[in-house]
Each structure stands twice: as C-alpha cells, then as structure tokens.
Design brief:
binds adenosine-5'-triphosphate, five-stranded parallel β-sheet, Rossmann fold, 40% helix
C-alpha cells in the first residue's frame, strides 16, 4: 500500500484529503508544518508527499528532495507559481480548491511515474533476500549522479509548458527523455509526434512538417495535414534539429513566433498549440556561427537546455543497463537470460561506447543470440577494438543503429548459429565491417541515392546518416537533396 504524507495547516482540508485518499486505498500520515513533516519522515519512508505551498513557517517546497516526489497544492495558482514550484523540483502542482478526481489522477499519475519504493517499515523476507531489479524512471534506467541530475531536471521542466532543447551524443536516450517530458506534462493525453529531421529527405521535409494543399508541387495530388498539425494540443519532438534545412528553419520560426502554420501552397494560416521539444547531437552554436542554423531559431528553441551524459560518463550504469537489457531482450527472444561474468563486466566498464545505449543494446542482443554459455565473458561481447571480430559476421555491418519496428533484428542481427559457416556471411577480403561500410558508401554514393544505399546496406536512412557522421564520410549535398 502506498504511503502518503499530507502536509497542510488547515485541519478541514487535511482531514478531507485524508478521507479521500484512505477511501482509495492509500495509507496516510498527517503533518501541519515542515518540521512535523520531517519528524514523520524519520519514522516512515513515504512514496509521495502532498504539501500545501504556504504553511506557517517554512513553505512546502522545503520538503522537495531527490528521494520522495512532492505534489504541491496552492491556492495561488498562477503560471508563475507553478513554474517556480516546478523549478524547485516538485513533480506536480494542483490548484486549491481541487476536485477529487483531479487530485486522485495527480496522485496516481505521480506514483506510477516515480516507481514507488517498497515500503520499508516492515520489509518482507523476499525483499531482504532478493534485491529488486532496478526500475527504469519513465523507461530510463540510471542510478549514477549525472543521470539523477537528468531525472531531477526532467521533473522540473516537464510540467511547465516551455520549449526544451535536449543535447547529447547519438544513442544517449534523447528521445526517451523527450517522451518522459511529454508523459509527465499536462499534454500527456494528446499525442507526441516525433520527427527525425535527418531521416526525411530535404525535398520532403517542409511538406511533412507543415502539410500541403493539393497541387502545391508536382506529385501533391491531394491536400495533407503536416506533422505539426497532427501534434496539435500535444508535443512535437524534432530530433536532429541541426539537420533542418535553412528554408524549413524560417517556417518553423514562424510557428514558434505566431503559433500558426501555413501549409505549402496555401495562403491561409491555422492556429496550432504545440509544445516543441528539439534534440541534437551537434554543437548548434557552432552551426549558428557557420551560418547553417538561424540564431533567432536557436534562441527560441533553447529556452531550457537538458544535457544527456554519454554512457562512458555514467559509471556503473553500464552494468545496470546491461543486466536490464539481458533480461528484456532474452524475454523478447524467448531464450533464458545469460548472466554477466566478471571479465564481461570489466570490458563493459572499460569500453568507450561511441554509440552509447543503442550500441549496448545491439551488443547485448548479439551476445544473447551467439553465446551458448549461461555466463557471458568479455569475448562473448565482441566489443570493437577489444576482441577479434567474429569470423561469421554478416556482410551487413553490425554497428549501433536505431531500429524501427519493421527493420528490427532482420537487418542488424548477425546470422544465426545455423549459418555461421555459410560463405555468404564471411566478410569480403577480411575487411573489417566498418571498412566495408566506408568502401561501399564511397564506391556507390555517386550513382545511388541515400535511400538506395541504405537499402543495399540493409539499414535505415537514419542509420546510414549516423554512420556517415561517425565514420567521417558526410554526405555531399546534391542539388536535388536525394
Ligand atoms: N537510460 C536508458 N535506459 C534504458 N534504455 C535506454 C536508456 N537510454 C537509451 N536507451 C535505449 O537506447 C536506445 C537509443 O535511445 P534514443 O533513441 O532515445 O537515443 P537518442 O539519443 O535519441 O539517439 P539519436 O540521437 O541517435 O536519435 C533506445 O532503444 C532506448 O530505449
């Protein structure tokens, strides 16, 4: 049963709230000031604190700490006080007088978001012997101090309707963070639409984002909503915003300034209410200096910047994530989950993870498929630069890639045990897989479009683009933007 601490100096409100919560199966403790609340916290570990903002003496925001989520009640409901409260780390605020359904929804939502800890008053025997597996925070796993800081920032900015720019290397979890921001925002019932600006061909990006009228360009046979309109009322996540072509940047700026969009080929504007969250692995300030990104758009997007640390700076989180992924992926593949041996742990901690968590996912999946042991050792991981490449590697490169549901393991997983010795799966002329990738792209990029190249390599356009960046073979701009 979840333990809730109510901190409220008005007795009538306190007991009404207590009755409401007890009727709904919560265990409740009351306090009327911050010091009383602190005393209660010495005795019980609460799953949630609901506190009035204004209390005699110290305000309720004093109770905001990293551990227990705090829901602040205030009769001074204004955007300003909500923003201030959230900035101090409250997970939710609610205006008084509250209605019962609203309060219960806020309580349930907060408890489900902040994985309730096992109540520690009387730990069960099972809880003592078997440590519970780590719980992801909104699907994001991490116990290291840098990740705790990220979680705290997410809590602060999610509920405030502000634009957020998420910065971090490829595969660090920027999209997961955007999802967490949306899910914890008042917009969570409306859609979050994700657009990868690097994955849509330049010629299509404006019509994808803004929509078009029939006849706006060759091939526009019917009018179509853009993705910004589709996100109306919700959140638009613009991933790899640094790749947005300059013309589309001007149009996007208009959306941010005027809160309206104009479809291609239309003279009419439509009002839209969209929260924009953008992400990039690029140094946008440098892009601005180089004239590739509009300064005015940069300022509009960069209201709050959230930096996601690379995996190599998260200490033991790599082990936590690896164990979590071993369980998750084994379940999906319907095979028993292997454990991590000591040498595997050491190798995971030493490796530098250029592809971050996405790379770890791929490495773990490959190890599960290929290893026959119940305990994985360093050599089972085939980490680049640490162990020889497996002889049976597919012709298709196996480097970090973001999967879509359709391309899942089909393209990225190495061949099954059955076809290890099939010559079709041996790498040509002993080339490393990355050499093979570089050579293939260099030899074919003049004749093939990006879509064709990606198809031949068995990867997505986005993955092709990511590898081009990583391996230093950036795509040359063409007149058609193919
Ligand atoms: N802390 C984490 N806990 C659990 N899974 C994670 C974590 N971080 C990332 N992942 C997983 O790693 C993969 C990559 O994450 P995501 O797509 O959010 O990264 P990204 O930074 O947006 O990458 P890109 O810049 O290439 O778009 C996803 O499958 C995601 O679920």
């Amino acid at each position: 049963m979840s333990q809730i601490l109510i901190v409220e100096d008005e007795g009538i409100i306190r007991s009404a709230l207590r009755r409401l919560l007890e009727r709904n199966g919560f265990s409740v403790t009351e306090a009327s000031t911050v010091p009383e609340a602190r005393d209660a916290q010495q005795k019980t570990q609460f799953d949630l604190i609901i506190s009035d903002l204004r209390l005699p003496g110290a305000p309720g925001t004093e109770l905001i700490q990293d551990q227990t989520p705090v829901l602040i009640m205030t009769s001074y409901a204004s955007l300003r006080s909500a923003i201030d409260t959230m900035k101090q780390g409250a997970v939710e605020y609610i205006a008084k007088p509250f209605d019962h359904d609203e309060m219960l929804a806020a309580v349930n939502h907060t408890l489900s978001q902040y994985s309730p800890k096992t109540v520690t008053n009387e730990p069960s025997a099972a809880a003592e012997t078997a440590p519970s597996p780590p719980e992801p925070h909104n699907g994001i796993l991490g116990e290291s101090p840098p990740m705790q800081r990220v979680f705290k920032q997410i809590r602060k900015v999610a509920a405030v309707d502000t634009r957020v720019l998420i910065l971090g290397e490829s595969g660090t979890g920027k999209e997961l963070v955007a999802r967490a921001l949306h899910d914890q925002s008042p917009r969570h019932k409306a859609p979050m639409i994700s657009v990868n600006c690097a994955a849509i061909p330049e010629t299509l990006i404006e019509s994808e984002l803004f929509g078009h009228e029939k006849g706006a360009f060759t091939g526009a046979n019917a009018s179509r909503n853009g993705l910004i309109e589709a996100a109306d009322g919700g959140t638009l996540f613009l991933d790899e915003i640094g790749e947005l072509p300059i013309e589309a940047q001007a149009r996007l700026l208009r959306v941010l300034q005027e809160k309206e969009i104009r479809r291609l080929g239309s003279v009419e504007s439509r009002q839209v209410d969209v929260r924009i969250i953008a992400a990039t692995h690029r140094d946008l300030e440098r892009q601005v200096d180089e004239g590739r990104f509009r300064l005015d758009l940069y300022y509009r997007l960069n209201v709050v910047a959230l930096e996601i640390p690379p995996l190599r700076e998260r200490g033991d989180d790599v082990i936590l994530l690896a164990e979590y992924l071993l369980d998750q992926i084994s379940q999906r593949l319907n095979v028993p989950a292997p454990k991590l041996g000591r040498s595997a742990r050491e190798a995971l901690l030493q490796y530098t993870w250029p592809g971050n968590v996405r790379e770890l996912e791929n490495i773990i999946e490959r190890a599960i498929i290929l290893s026959e042991d119940k305990r994985l050792q360093a050599e089972d991981l085939h980490l680049p630069g640490q162990t020889p490449q497996p002889q049976y590697e597919s012709r298709r490169p196996f480097t970090p890639e973001k999967r879509t549901s359709t391309e899942h393991t089909t393209h990225s997983a190495p061949p099954s045990r059955a076809n290890r010795n099939d010559p079709a799966h041996l790498p040509p002329n002993d080339l490393s897989l990355e050499d093979y990738f570089v050579r293939f792209v260099q030899d074919n990029q003049e004749e093939m479009s990006e879509t064709e190249l990606a198809r031949k390599l068995g990867i997505s356009r986005k993955c092709l683009w990511e590898r081009r960046q990583r391996l230093g073979i950036p795509r040359r701009k063409t007149a058609t933007g193919r």
